[in-house]
Amino acid sequence: MEKLKLAVYWASSCGGCDISLVELGEHLLELARVADIVFWPCAMDFKYADVEAMPDGHIDVTLFNGAIRTDEDAHIAHLLRAKSRVLIAYGSCATEGCIPALANIKGADHALARAAFGEPTTDNPGGTMFQGRYAMPEGVLTLPVLGTQVRTLSQVVPVQYSIPGCPPSHEQVWQALNAVIEGRLPEPGGLLGVDARTVCDQCPRVREGKIRVERFLRPHEVIPDPERCLLEQGLVCAGPATHAGCGALCVKAGMPCRGCYGAPDGILDQGAELLDAIVAGMAGESDEEIRRVVSTIVDPVGTFYRFSLAASLLHGLKTSPLESGATCETQRIPGGREGDVA
Ligand code: SF4
Ligand code: SF4
Fold first, then answer.
1. pLDDT digits (tens, 9 = 90+) for 136-188
2. CA geometry: angle at 245 spanning 217 and 99, to 5°?
3. Does the beta carbon of 237 sit less than 6 angstroms from any atom of ligand 1?
4. CATH fold of 1-193+312-342, please?
5. Which of 236, 242, 274 to mutate to test the pocket of ligand 2 (most atoms within 8 A of CB)?
6. Which ligand does the CA of 233 lie closest to?
7. With contact defined as beta carbons under 8 Å apart, do 215 and 293 qualify?
8. Closest ligand 2 atom to 246 CA
9. 3-state DSSP call for residue 102?
10. Cα–Cα distance between 57 and 81 in angstroms, integer?
């Protein structure tokens, strides 16, 4: 039997998604029996030229992790789209922007001027700034240039599937890879390896259905009751607004869910859904009291949109359709087999 050709790429992300693949452990040996890895620059010495030399549609499946933040990320996204029959957005950054997309709040210039080349992180008395091109006597040096906004993979090229999570759990990844290996992939356009419910549905903690708190707390401020719902104890837990799939990992360990599996099916905006759940839990309180208690949440955008800002309705307000690109459910994959759609 001909082996599958598998590619893995890392755009703007922390590297945790690549590590989640290594976490497959002995399943990697099973994977090696049925698939050849034809491109995985994080793990082995591949060159972009190797991919450029491949015919279109040569790669069976690409797992693309990381957000699209630089011109290099966008270039490789287009290249791998052309060379892959199935392109999968792997992990939260590729699927919905994740932590890198929080930079969209103030934009790339702010990130460069303050976070990367200015105080408080950098001692830079000469005010040296990043340049994408620099002419030397020996030739022109280039570096990837940040785009104005961090985007999801599907905002740049069509993708068939997404595997959410920061990072995806290895059980979920193996489940998704098995679907690839056994040719059991569902209709394009959905999430792989998730449960149709929310994290709350997988959480063993007891819920009373009422949030009665004076103020919201940060995790370091309290040792919560191990049996009761964290949200009802004043910790912002994104469980009601988050796709199930991880088995409620964080809440079982005593930490609130941060929402890394993204919005549940049918929910357009994860942050709005979580805010809605919190307000519903305070039903019966006056509007004034609800506003007062909700206003005690520190860093509301970072809390409600920690993972999903680039894919949220807030992102839509700032980005025109032309800038954001578009997903296309029916476009033929270049070089794909009959019936393959993106
Ligand atoms: S809000 Fe969090 S702690 Fe409460 S039931 Fe849902 S997942 Fe569990
Ligand atoms: S509990 Fe929430 S933050 Fe933790 S892994 Fe699951 S979805 Fe992600």
1. 999 999 999 999 999 999 999 999 999 999 999 998 899 999 999 998 999 99
2. 55
3. yes
4. Rossmann fold (3.40.50)
5. 242
6. 1
7. yes
8. 6
9. helix
10. 8
Helix (H, G, I), strand (E, B) or coil at 303: helix
Whole-number Cα distances in Å, 121 to 98, 114, 116, 144, 156: 22, 8, 7, 21, 31
Helices (H), 295-328: 300-304, 313-318, 321-324
3-state helix, strand, coil in the chain (%, to 5): 35, 20, 45
Q: Please report, for the chain, the start and end positions of each structural domain, with discontinuous segments joined by +.
A: 1-193+312-342, 195-309
205 lines ligand 1 (CB under 6 A): yes
Strands 4-10 and 59-65, bridge-based pairing: parallel
What gap in Å lies between CA 324 and CA 100, rounded to an integer?
A: 16
Tell whether pTM > 0.85.
Answer: yes
Q: Are 130 and 117 in contact (CB under 8 A)?
A: yes
Rounded to whole angstroms, how far apart are CA atoms 265 and 190?
9
pLDDT at 323: 43
Residue 335: pLDDT band (50, 70, 90) is: very low
Residue 199 beta carbon below 6 angstroms from any ligand 1 atom: yes
